[in-house]
Amino acid sequence: MMFTFSKVNQVLTLSTTALVMALGATGEAIAQSLNGAGASFPAPLYQRYFSEYKKATGVTVNYNSVGSGAGIRQFVGETVDFGASDVAPSSSEKGKMKRGVLLVPTAGGAVAVVHNLKGAGNVQIPRQVLPKIFSGEITNWKQVDSKLPNKAIKVVVRADGSGTTAIFTSHLSAVSSSFKQKVGASKEPNWGFTVLKGPKNDGVAALVKQTDGAIGYVQDTYARKNNLSTAKIQNKAGRYVEPSLAEANKAMAGISFNSDFTANVSDPSDGYPIVGITWLLLYKDYKDNATAAQVKRLANWILSSGQSINGQLEYTRIPASVAQKVKAEVNKIK
């Protein structure tokens, strides 16, 4: 087979184009797909992130919403390129992360208290009553409010190790010393009484929807997606508040981030009282340059362009000043 000069030139041009597409700014190879797993709390947001990211870059990001506990375990086992969690890893868990860990905050959001109490109208739950429901002390809706039906409360919780549960129980522990002693803040607590359990936010939402008299907790987007009724929760300022984006933003406004980008949001001074932050877990030292380069590229995109998506799905944004500090740390990944 004979090649003319023009055909040889065309082949060289195509090969050069393919090579350029596979190289980063520093000349390192760039991986064309990434795999992550973890929290279901931000899953609707991450699905949008990764869809838009593929449109912008051509890179596929696969995300398995398995819950924060499983996400941390997979990150420790180094079976993913990144993990995701709504609760910071414990000291013990960090000790198992041989390649180090960088917590990258991506969003904040409200944990809605959802119920299935037909015909009840506006359900308001006082600040000290909510912990008593989830520790089994209050068992009938009439004990919550005399105007509510005389109906048994059926408590629905997460079956898996859950960052959403950690956010929820951290708030209840901050509000009630009794709850803190009996149950405590945990991603997989021993509730101490008979509860119904569903996997991930989807499973809790489905159980509440099909169980008369049920009460549970899910990230707010899941409440809206499943058309679930949400209770107004009394906050520290005494107001009864719905889990809206505006109230979540108000709660997050006074939050200060620590040097490792964690923050205490267990009982904000105002706004919707049950809010949390979700993080990507990135290795500080990756096995290969290609994956490290693509992870850095993804994280930088999320902390810049991606933040404009947050409000569309009822998630709060990470403050720009914090995002800049996080990006500086992301760019140190090797």
Structure explained in plain terms:
By secondary structure, the chain is α/β, with parallel strands linked by helices. The chain folds into two domains: 137 residues, D-Maltodextrin-Binding Protein, domain 2 (3-Layer(aba) Sandwich); 165 residues, Periplasmic binding protein-like II (D-Maltodextrin-Binding Protein, domain 2, 3-Layer(aba) Sandwich), CATH 3.40.190. Helices cover 38% and strands 18% of the residues. It is built from 14 helices and twelve strands.
- The CATH superfamily of the largest domain is identified as Periplasmic binding protein-like II
Percent range of helical residues: 25-40%
Secondary structure tally, helices = 14
What is the name of the CATH architecture of the largest domain?
A: 3-Layer(aba) Sandwich
User: What name does CATH use for the topology of the largest domain?
Assistant: D-Maltodextrin-Binding Protein, domain 2
The overall number of domains is: 2
* Percent in strands: 15-25%
**Using DSSP, what is the number of strands?**
12
Q: Topology, please?
A:
Layout: H1 5-21, E1 33-38, H2 43-57, E2 60-65, H3 68-76, E3 82-85, H4 91-95, E4 102-115, E5 124-125, H5 129-133, H6 141-144, E6 154-158, H7 163-175, H8 177-182, E7 196-198, H9 200-210, E8 214-219, H10 220-225, E9 229-230, E10 232-234, E11 240-241, H11 245-252, E12 275-282, H12 289-302, H13 307-310, H14 320-330
